[in-house]
Design goal:
The chain is of the alpha/beta class. The chain is 44% helix and 7% strand. The strands form three sheets. Strands 3-2-1-4-5-6 form a six-stranded parallel β-sheet, with helices on both faces. A two-stranded parallel sheet has the order 7-8.
Length: 716
C-alpha cells in the first residue's frame, strides 16, 4: 500500500483528493445498460468537473477456468472428463467480446485494462496503480453473477480489494442478469404470508425483501454510507433465501412474472467527457490520463488481446494444456485448426457466423426484428419480411441462421442485456401499433425511450415502477401462432426462470440425482460417451447435432434437448458428464440455462414432468429435409428421400447401395477404419431405434411404417 492510499481523508488536502472507481467487467461485455459503469461514472461527475477522477475498466481472463474444475468427480468410477471449463469455442467469442468492449471504451476516451491470471490479483495491482496516481478514495463496481462458484470468486476479489485499499474503499454490487429485476417480481403471489392478491410486483411485500430500501437499481447509495471498506448493493446470499418460494415449474414462474412484473428501462452508455451534448441522461466517462495509461502499459495491462487460442492455454500452465489436449482427444477437433480471434472466419455450415461484440449484437438484433436490412452477413431483399415474422413457427428448426434469433451467445457474454432486447422489441411493437394509435388520435410513444433514460439517470425510475407495471401487465398476453415478437419475449422469460431457479436451488442440481430426490441408477461407459460426443451413435439427427457442436460450439435448442435426452434417458450415462461437456464446448454457454436444461432432461430437476424425447421423430419434424444431416453426416448425404437419411437402418438395400452407404456395427467399423485409414461407413444405432420413434406428422408416420415393413430394423 502506497503512502497516498494510506493518507487520511480529512484535512486541507481532502478537497483535492482524486477519487477512483474500478469497474470489473465479467459476462457483461458492453457499455450500454451496464449499471456498474453508469453508476461509477455518475459518482465521479463532480470530481471530474473539479479536479479530475480516475475510472478504471478492467477484465481478467481467469486462468483457473482454462483448467478442469477442481475436485469434481462423476458417480460410479470416479471418472472426470479432464477438459477445460472454458473451451476454445467460447474462449474465442469471449476474446472477441473483450476486443469490441475495448474499442467502445476507447471511443469514450477510456480503455480496457486486461490481464490473464486471477481477478483478485489484478485488483490488488490496480489499487496500487491508483494509489501511485494520487487517489485516496476507491470504489469497486461490478455485476454479481448467479451461482456458488461465481459468488466465491466475488468474495476473493472483495477480500483482495479490501486488503489493498485498507479502509478507503467500498464494493458496490449490482444485479443485471435477468429481464426482470428481483425487486420487481410478483412476490405477493408466492410468499407464504401474502394474501396472493393481484397487486404490483413492488407492492406491500417490498418491506420484507432484501435490498429494496435502495434508491438505486440494486445498489445502495454510496453517499449515504459512512462506513469505509464495506460491501453495498445487491447481496446474492440474501436473495437466495428469498427465492426458495419461487415456483419450480418454468411455465408457472414465467406466466406469473410476465403478467405482473415490469421491465426496467436500459441504462444509457456514458458519453465522452468532451462531448458537446447537454443531455443529462448519460454521465461523462472520465478519460484515462496519459500518465496512468503509460503506467498501465508498462504493467502489461494495455497489451493486445491474444489471437491464437492454443497460446492462451499455454500461458495458463501445464494443467490447462493437458485439459485442452483431453478436449481435443474427446471431440476429435484440433484447437490449432480453429480460426483465430477476430478473424471473421467461420465454418460455412455454422449457424452462428458472428463475431462477438456490442455493436455486432445490436446489428444482429435489429436485423432480426426488421429494424435494419443487414446483420453484416446477409442482406434482406426489398419486400422480404424480417426473420422475426416467422419466429413462432421456425424457432425450433434445427438448421439455418435465421430460423431463430441467434442472440444466445451475445446474451451469454453480455454483449446484449435482456433489457436491451426488450427495448428493441418494444420499438418494433410501437411501430406495429402506430397506425392504430394514429387512427384513434393517439400521440404515439416516440419519446418513451428518452423519457425512460431520463428517469434512470435522475434516480426516479424506481418511483415509477408501479405505473409502468400496470402498463406492462396491460400490454402482455401469451403468444399465439400468429404472433412474432411475443415469442421472443416469452423465451427471455424462460431464460429468467433458469437464472432464478439457479439462485433458488444452489448446488443441489449438480448432485447425481439433483433436487428431485429420485434414486435412479446411472452408469459409466467411456466408450459409449465418446461415441455420443463425436456423433457416432448411429442416430443421424443426434449425430449431426453433436458433430455440429464439436466443430462450431453451437447446435440448436431442439438439438440440445434431444442429445441430452438420449444420453440421460436412453443410454443412462451419468448426465453430469454431458453437463460438463456442454459447459466446455458450447460457445454460448450460460451456467444457469445449461444446468436447468440438463436437470430437466435427466429428470433430476424440480419439475415433476419426466419427458423423454423421441429423437428420430424429432429429427423428422425439425429437420424435415435432412439439411442438418446432409451438412454434418456426409456418409448419408446422398441417401434419399430425406426420411431415409433420418433412418438409414430402415432403407432398402438398393437405396443404401445407390447412395454408397455402408452400415456397420461400431466396433467392426472402427476397427476397419483404424486398419485401412479410410472411413465412409456409418454405425448401426447404439439403441433400438424403435425406442426413439414416436408420433409424428401423419405423412411421416406412414413413411416410417412403409420403411419398417420394407426391411427388418437393424441394430448394433
Amino acid at each position: 500500500m502506497s503512502a497516498a492510499m494510506a493518507a487520511p481523508r480529512g484535512g486541507k488536502g481532502a478537497a483535492a483528493a482524486r477519487p477512483a472507481a474500478l469497474v470489473w467487467f465479467r459476462s457483461d461485455l458492453r457499455v450500454t445498460d451496464h449499471e456498474p459503469l453508469f453508476r461509477a461514472a455518475a459518482d465521479l461527475q463532480s470530481a471530474l468537473e473539479q479536479h479530475g477522477a480516475l475510472l478504471l475498466p478492467f477484465f481478467c481472463l481467469d486462468s483457473r477456468e482454462l483448467a478442469p474444475r477442481a475436485g469434481e468427480a462423476a458417480a460410479g468410477g470416479g471418472t472426470v472428463l479432464g477438459i477445460p471449463q472454458l473451451g476454445p469455442h467460447r474462449l474465442r467469442l469471449l476474446l472477441e467480446g473483450c476486443a469490441s468492449l475495448r474499442t467502445s471504451l476507447q471511443q469514450l476516451g477510456s480503455n480496457l485494462l486486461w490481464q490473464q491470471g486471477s481477478p483478485e490479483a489484478l485488483v490488488g495491482r490496480l489499487v496500487a496503480l491508483a494509489a501511485a496516481a494520487g487517489t485516496t478514495r476507491l470504489a469497486l463496481h461490478h455485476h454479481t453473477q448467479p451461482g456458488a462458484e461465481a459468488l466465491g470468486i466475488e468474495g476473493k476479489v472483495a477480500a483482495a480489494f479490501a486488503a489493498a485499499a485498507a479502509a478507503h474503499g467500498n464494493v458496490h454490487t449490482y444485479w443485471g442478469a435477468t429481464l426482470y429485476h428481483p425487486e420487481d417480481l410478483p412476490w405477493q403471489l408466492w410468499l407464504p404470508d401474502s394474501d396472493g392478491g393481484g397487486g404490483t410486483g413492488t407492492g406491500s411485500t417490498s418491506s420484507r425483501l432484501p435490498g429494496t430500501s435502495s434508491s438505486r437499481s440494486g445498489t445502495a447509495d454510496a453517499s449515504s454510507n459512512g462506513v469505509d471498506g464495506s460491501r453495498e448493493g445487491f447481496q446474492q446470499e440474501e436473495w437466495q433465501q428469498r427465492c426458495i418460494c419461487l415456483p419450480g415449474v418454468m411455465s408457472d414462474f414465467r406466466k406469473a412474472v410476465q403478467a405482473h412484473a415490469p421491465v426496467r428501462p436500459p441504462f444509457p452508455a456514458p458519453r465522452h467527457a468532451e462531448s458537446s451534448s447537454s443531455s443529462s441522461s448519460s454521465p461523462a466517462m472520465p478519460p484515462l490520463p496519459a500518465s496512468f495509461a503509460a503506467a498501465a502499459e508498462d504493467a502489461g495491462l494495455l497489451a493486445s488481446l491474444p489471437t491464437y487460442l492454443c497460446r492462451v492455454y499455454a500461458a495458463a500452465g501445464d494443467e490447462a494444456v493437458a485439459a485442452l489436449s483431453s478436449w481435443e482427444a474427446l471431440t476429435g477437433v484440433a484447437c490449432a485448426e480453429l480460426a483465430p480471434v477476430c478473424s471473421a472466419q467461420h465454418d460455412a455450415r455454422s449457424a452462428l457466423p458472428f463475431t462477438m461484440g456490442e455493436q455486432q449484437a445490436q446489428q444482429r438484433l435489429r436485423y432480426y426484428l426488421g429494424l435494419v436490412d443487414s446483420d453484416g452477413h446477409r442482406l434482406r431483399a426489398a419486400g422480404q419480411p424480417p426473420p422475426i415474422a416467422g419466429y413462432g413457427q421456425s424457432r425450433m428448426q434445427a438448421f439455418g441462421v435465421d430460423h431463430s434469433a441467434k442472440l444466445s451467445a451475445f446474451l451469454a457474454l453480455g454483449c446484449l442485456s435482456p433489457r436491451m432486447v426488450h427495448a428493441a422489441v418494444m420499438e418494433l411493437a410501437a411501430a406495429e401499433h402506430a397506425p392504430e394509435q394514429q387512427a384513434r388520435g393517439g400521440s404515439g410513444s416516440s419519446g418513451a425511450a428518452a423519457d425512460a433514460a431520463h428517469e434512470v439517470a435522475n434516480g426516479v425510475a424506481e418511483l415509477k415502477l408501479s405505473e409502468r407495471q400496470g402498463q406492462a401487465v396491460a400490454e402482455w398476453r401469451e403468444p399465439t401462432a400468429a404472433d412474432s415478437w411475443r415469442w421472443l419475449l416469452m423465451h427471455l422469460g424462460i431464460r429468467d426462470f433458469f437464472i432464478y431457479n439457479h439462485l433458488k436451488e444452489g448446488p443441489a442440481p449438480t448432485r447425481l440425482n439433483g433436487s428431485s430426490h429420485t434414486s435412479a441408477e446411472w452408469r459409466q461407459d467411456p466408450e459409449l460417451f465418446g461415441r455420443w460426443v463425436q456423433g457416432q451413435t448411429g442416430l443421424p439427427f443426434v449425430d449431426a447435432c453433436m458433430r455440429e457442436l464439436a466443430a462450431t460450439g453451437y447446435t440448436s435448442n431442439r438439438g440440445r434437448q434431444n442429445v441430452a435426452s438420449l444420453l440421460a434417458k436412453a443410454l443412462r450415462i451419468d448426465w453430469r458428464l454431458g453437463l460438463r461437456y456442454f459447459e466446455s464446448t458450447l460457445a454460448d454457454h450460460d451456467c444457469s440455462a445449461n444446468l436447468g436444461n440438463w436437470a430437466y432432461n435427466a429428470g433430476t430437476g424440480a419439475d415433476p414432468r419426466d419427458r423423454t424425447f423421441k429423437t428420430v421423430t424429432q429429427g423428422l419434424r425439425y429437420d424435415p429435409d435432412a439439411r442438418l444431416i446432409r451438412a454434418w453426416v456426409p456418409q448419408l448425404a446422398a441417401l434419399s428421400p430425406p426420411e431415409l437419411a433420418h433412418q438409414p437402418w430402415a432403407a432398402p438395400l438398393e437405396a443404401l447401395a445407390a447412395a454408397g452407404v455402408q452400415l456397420r456395427p461400431w466396433q467392426q467399423g472402427a476397427a476397419a477404419e483404424a486398419e485401412s485409414g479410410t472411413g465412409g461407413w456409418y454405425p448401426l444405432p447404439a439403441v433400438d431405434p424403435a425406442t426413439q420413434t414416436g408420433k409424428g406428422p401423419k405423412k411421416q408416420q406412414q413413411q416410417q411404417q412403409q420403411a419398417a415393413s420394407a426391411q427388418p430394423l437393424a441394430q448394433e
